[in-house]
Amino acid sequence: MIRITAPSGRSVLAKVVDECDSADGCANNIVDGSDGVWAALGWISILMKCTLLGPWLRYPYG
């Protein structure tokens, strides 16, 4: 589990699931989330998800 915190201070605990292709892998530092994760953070726009995620991702959690 990781905790993702938005600039507003809202945060959500999210389960980490590896969905990368075993042959090609994923790019480094890529994190995606379900619509429920983004809604819990108050982020509605897909564009905002791409722009704002990086600096506010805090891991590991536990």
Would you mind describing this structure in some detail?
- This protein has 62 residues and is an alpha+beta fold.
- It has one domain.
- 29% of the residues lie in helices and 16% in strands.
- It is built from two helices and three strands; from the N terminus they run ββααβ.
- It has helices at 35-41, 46-56; strands spanning 2-5, 11-14, 57-58.
- A three-stranded antiparallel β-sheet has the order 2-1-3.
- β1 (2-5) and β2 (11-14) form a beta hairpin.
- The protein is elongated and about 35 Å long.
The H-and-E topology, N to C, reads as EEHHE
Instruction: Categorize the overall geometry.
Output: elongated
Low-confidence stretches: 46-52, 58-62
Give the radius of gyration.
12 Å
Tell me about the largest β-sheet: 3 strands, antiparallel
Q: Count the E strands.
A: 3
Question: What is the mean predicted local confidence, pLDDT?
Answer: 72
Q: How many helices?
A: 2
SS-based class: alpha+beta
First and last CA, distance: 7 Å
Percent of residues in helices: 25-40%
Number of discrete domains: 1
**If strands are numbered along the chain, what order do they take across the biggest sheet?**
2-1-3
